[in-house]
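Sequence, structure tokens reproduced for absentees:
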Amino acid sequence: MLKPNYLGEFELLVMLTVIRLGEGAYGVPISRMIEEQTGRDVAFGSVYATLERLQKKGFVCSTLGDATPERGGRAKRYFRVTATGLRTVRETKRSLIGLWRGLRELEGGVA
């Protein structure tokens, strides 16, 4: 039996950010966008560890860009979501919406 694909909360944030950034998705802008959108402090290390985990799961793939002088001759690693990753994000969205639907406590009002 195949093991279903699951995304944790931070994995989902990273996946959505990679999709949103498109071809410019690498560690620094991924971290910054998550910080801007969530108000959370995001360590670069946690983003890179998550991207590595997502790559092992087959949800993202990466390519190396050209080396740049401002990075001390190091190249940026760019990420993109795979077809499997996109399918998993859609499944996660459906699951969350299904769980959310009908919960009066979460449909507006003051907590």
Summary: The domain at 9-101 is CATH 1.10.10.10 (Arc Repressor Mutant, subunit A).
